Amino acid sequence: MRSPILILALLVLGGCMKVSDLADGTTYQLRDAGFLDHGRTERLASRRLQQDSFIYIVQGHFVPPGDAYPRPNVVAEEAFKGFVEYFPLVRRARSPAGLEEAMGQARAAGAHYLLYSRFAYADDRIGTGEEWADQQGLDRLGTDRGVIQLMLIETNTRYLVDTARIRSRGGFLTFYDAKPEDLLGPPLRDYARSLIGLSR
Fold it and tell me: Which CATH number applies to 38-195: 2.60.120.260, 3.40.50.2000, 3.40.30.10, 3.40.50.800?
């Protein structure tokens, strides 16, 4: 008796929503509840760029406060990975630079826009036995967190097109041996999508 009712329930649910929509909804809920990695982007403007815009990506020298020491150019590297999927004309600097130096590099490359980024905050919590042996603090157990700041500047006019702040938080199911920089990829890719008007 149970199996016909179960099959009927699945058919009714299947008619209401696609399986991919159910999976996306479940993933969103798990991220929001803190079980999976989560990133939230706050944009100042909602301007869209043409897909053939040439964007030059640079990370500032700023070393984030917090208990983490991410690679010096990791934000630019992760931003490039996210942007290259949506903007064919994108390049990144090989090393961090100050804003004026970054603007000079972007203009020399012929870029329309400079995406200037910095790692504003990083907290690498205890996630492995080795980290526990080093820190041995119950208050240090937990998920990693990070904040990055982005400025999108038009190179010809130096007009600030957009600013964004991305807050990332690790998930309880994915925190083992993770670092704050491991959380950057998906929200940076979502930011690139938002710049050309695509929803998540």
Answer: 3.40.50.800
